[in-house]
Amino acid sequence: MGSSATMGELCTIDGQFVLVVARDTTLPRLSLDSISLLGGSDAPCSAVDSNADFAIYQFPVTACGTRAMELGGYVVYENKMSSSYEVGVGPLGAITRDSHYELYFQCRYADATVAALAVQLASNNPPMPVAASGPLMVELRLGSGQCVTKGCMQAQAAYTSYYGDADYPVTKVLREPVYVEVRILGRTDPNIALVLGRCWATSSPDPFSIPQWELLVDGCPYQHDSYLTTPIPVDGSSGLQFPSHYKRFVLKMFTFVDHASMAPLQEKVFIHCSTSVCQLTAADSCEPRCSRQRRDVVAAGRKSSHQLTVVSSGEVIFTEKAETVPPELQGNPNLVE
Fold this sequence. Notes:
mainly beta, 5-stranded antiparallel beta sheet, 22 strands, disordered N terminus, disordered C terminus
């Protein structure tokens, strides 16, 4: 049995592993240079040949950290291939937007016969939809619209429709855009504006839980992120009756990382924003000034007409292909180095 990650013959009669790994095995596409075996990535454990789309590995079943055991009359050799990934570390959590790839594989030998097994590990826990809103009648929702015509702008099309309660949890691939909108409900005063203070993500519906990852700080993109959150202007061209009642931004999907082991967590992501209402005047457009020199001064000098309110999204999860790990590969006590 083989996984979609490999092509060609996995085991040879003369005791060799042969694997072909495709770059498009994962989304985002796998960095082939990041792959290593249990014994590392130096020869003979490095790729014997590669191009932009594939890497070929061939090495003896006794090399590269392979573990051996006897099982049901077979001599079994097994190893693991995995990829490295970049981790962003913040004061309250850590995330990654890189794909994490793991492939357990084994060869079984009995006399002149050869059997092979390869299993790719990836799992997502089944989620439960959650929605929350604040007492100021402020709503956070996620855009679901898609471009259907030539020349369409996805950042605009995304806000032509929205995920409803029945659509949660929303599934996204790592680095896929997530379009967020926060809006005031039930108000018709054109002289007020919605202000976003801090926007952040957690792995639970509780906005004060740990870990957290900053998205916006004082309405401005969090600067210690390799993929900056991007505010999307909302003005008269939007067709909205009260554009100042809306805030929109787009982030790139990520997953949280365990702070101790730096292993990617198969966790949910919830998005939260602290909001307030600002009185529009000739001297104050209520828009954040995101230069480092001015941000703190402007944020400190502005007075909102309401106390801060936190509003949250439903559940967003990232998706990968999943297969089941067979019992032979799960903590077998007969493994020997």
